[in-house]
Amino acid sequence: MKIDGVYRNVDVTWDDTEEPTYNYFNKTDRELAATHRRTGLSVYLPACEGAGTQTPAAPEGGEAGTSEDGEIPGSAENPGGEDADGADDISGLINPNPIQPLEWESKKKEEPVDPLQAAEDRRRESLEKAGVTEEQVRDTMQEYYEDCRRLLKDAGTGDRQFVNVIPQSLWGSVERAYNSGDYRKGYVDSALKDMGASSFAIQLQVQDLGGGYYRLYHNVYTY
């Protein structure tokens, strides 16, 4: 609440009990630090840094909150009452700009991250998850065609199979090549010429290895 142009905290939790107390009325943030913390939407409220006020007198039939020596707990002369000694520095709890919530700042200093190294680390983790090595992966269509040409020639004529691995991102290009027939110009025609064969049939099977990689099984019949 705002009194005479100064913001103060008011906690009405205990003012409707059988013996009401007003120990937490019109207090500064520092006076309430021993027993209260700002959380949730309360971080948007203005800081209460003005001078504290005395606890108001209890209504007729009630008792104001006082200690045995007559002091009023939580007053400006005795901030926080008997728990004041346990209050710590509350400067970090006071929101200097009530329009914006307080943001947590970690005390741990984060080391600068090299984006290239981070990308390489992610790729290595993905390869390990897929159970393959860097040397087994064909990253481009050119690498894929060259590998297929070599493997097809090594397999020879007859009913054969050869296998290679590609990243998931390359699968769309491979699929289009087989649907359109471009794969024949990519590796089949030159391999058949070197092998002295004239006919070729293929069935392609795809296995998802996880980690963003596919294993391609090429079941071929060449004669």
Written description of the protein model:
The chain is of the alpha+beta class. Helices cover 26% and strands 18% of the residues. The protein is built from five helices and seven strands; from the N terminus they run ββββαααβααββ. The protein is rod-shaped, with a radius of gyration of 38 Å.
Keywords:
alpha+beta, three-stranded antiparallel sheet, 223 residues, rod-shaped
Strand-pairing-aware structural class: alpha+beta
Q: What is the averaged pLDDT score?
A: 79
How much of the polypeptide forms β-strand, as a percent range?
15-25%
Helix content: 25-40%
Please tell me how large the radius of gyration is. Answer: 38 Å
- Give the SSE order as H and E letters: EEEEHHHEHHEE
Number of strands: 7
Strands of the widest sheet, in order across it, are 5-7-6
Question: Per the principal axes of the C-alpha atoms, what is the gross shape?
Answer: rod-shaped
> Main sheet, how many strands, which sense, barrel?
3 strands, antiparallel
Distance between the termini: 92 Å
Low-confidence stretches: 62-87
> How many helical elements?
5
